[in-house]
Amino acid sequence: MYVYCVAILFLTINSVCPLQCYLCIASTTSDCNEGNVTSMARQTCHNSSNPERPTETVCVGYAYSDGDQQIVTRGCGYIFQDVNICWYLNLTVPVVSCSDCKTDLCNVNRML
């Protein structure tokens, strides 16, 4: 009985606590690209409260081309359910590399 109650409490807390992601934007020669956590801020992601337009919250990291320069961006990503955020980003900017994840501070891997 005790284990069952703890499991329910954990699931309740886990679904209520907002996702945490690393946040940075910089060139590909920066600590942001390397995933150096001491150089990145932490961002709290908040879920959408609009039940008519349900969104999914993820941590995202991507690199894109801006003219002759490549930029790395990390942070919270908000996307409609059943839509891949990397696919969507590629429609708006020329994405070179992209990954998303759904656990706290998971967007730490080197981008390029």
TrEMBL record:
Transmembrane segments: none annotated. Keywords: Glycoprotein, Signal. One of its GO terms (biological process) is regulation of synaptic transmission, cholinergic. The keyword Glycoprotein applies. InterPro entries: QVR-like, Snake_toxin-like_sf. The keyword Cytoplasm does not apply. Residues 1-18 form the signal peptide. This is Protein quiver. It comes from Photinus pyralis (Common eastern firefly). The lineage of its organism: Eukaryota, Metazoa, Ecdysozoa, Arthropoda, Hexapoda.
